[in-house]
Amino acid sequence: MMTLELVCARFQGLAPEELRGWVAAGYVRADAEGEALVFQEIDVARIGLILDLRETLALEEEPLALVLSLLDQIYALRRRLGEG
Amino acid sequence: MAEDPYKVLGVARDATPEAIKKAYRKLARQNHPDLNPGKPEAEARFKAASSAHDLLSDPDRRARFDRGEIDAEGQEMPPPRPAGGWRRHADAASGGRYDPNVDLGDFGDVFADLFARQRAAESAPRPGRDMAYQLRVPFLSAVLGATEQLVLPDGRQLSVRIPPGVVSGQSLRLRGQGGPGRNGGPPGNAVIELEVADHPLYRREGFDLHLDLPVTLREAVLGGPVTVPAPTGPLRVTLPAGSDTGRVVRLRGKGVAAEGNRAAGDLLLTLRVMVGKPDAALEAFLRDWKPEHPQNPREAMGEATP
């Protein structure tokens, strides 16, 4: 589990305000621990994915939400196929 | 984080070492703190130019900076993030944390999930924003530590504990005192930027304080006890005999108060001999006075040579 500050320290150019926005928009999940937000390893990897999409692939906010949604559907299907 | 050293010096990225040195010298001349007393912005520019020059004048470090291996402060940059970290998590069973909000059997609308998410996000807990405030701190509060009151724009009052040793530009963070959260989310933090006021008597250098202490001719020649206005209150100090103007007396632990593992700073007195108003007896004495060890205080200046 990592706090919001630690996560922001790990990724260069990620502002706490921005990450909170992603949590609020549902792109990234976080758990509440008392008054603070904490992130699991998978959430941190998710943030890495979003940064890649935004910086390396130059995706704007709106297409980003669409791409994340489609990726999640693909991976959910892959997991289902893997089980079968 | 420090600024781009090329920008600080105002040179192109392919500037020659000579051009870099020239740009640095010019900035150093304009902003040297000793040539600009009482101008902290000049000192800041001087420091920035020095550290930029330090980095760029070393061919090895300059090359590493140009390749992005170190930042403008000379710190190692983290290695680039390998792509594909998400896939490992998403393909594992734990990837269910990011399951779509719709039934996957229904292939009628691949966009249904997007809209379901947007609806869900609107009612999701949303943490409050961080709020930035500024607080002017009296000099002695920054030296000794204190609790200051900050009145927020909405009329609320916050008690802010100022630890001893804070400097202008430093920020304190008060958890949960920022904007309110929505839908049960946690409130944001108050981030308070401090501005430490100057003091008419003391000057701070790191955790040490400097004080110019006027002394009479008698105190300078004979030494003895004087009362010094220390930050914590009047302090009796015994001066050594034969103290010239400029002599520095160090009072250990009487500077910026200790905090955590950091020891207290010192109070450094710089003596200033005050001759005072004309005094007939003193003049008469000096006229007849034959010094035991005659000396020329300007000897080192080479006064004798024409």
TrEMBL record, chain A:
Record's protein name: Chaperone modulatory protein CbpM
Species, as recorded: Falsiroseomonas frigidaquae
UniProtKB/TrEMBL annotation, chain B:
Cited InterPro entries: DnaJ_C, DnaJ_domain, DnaJ_domain_CS, HSP40/DnaJ_pept-bd, J_dom_sf
Top-level lineage group: Bacteria
Residue ranges, compositional bias (Basic and acidic residues): 55-70
Region Disordered, annotated ranges: 29-94
Record keywords, A-Z: Chaperone
Record domain J: where: 4-69
UniProt key word Chaperone: yes
SUPFAM superfamilies: Chaperone J-domain (SSF46565), HSP40/DnaJ peptide-binding domain (SSF49493)
SMART domains in UniProt: DnaJ
Chaperone keyword on record: yes
Sequence intervals crossing the membrane: none
Protein's name according to its UniProt entry: J domain-containing protein
Organism this protein belongs to: Falsiroseomonas frigidaquae
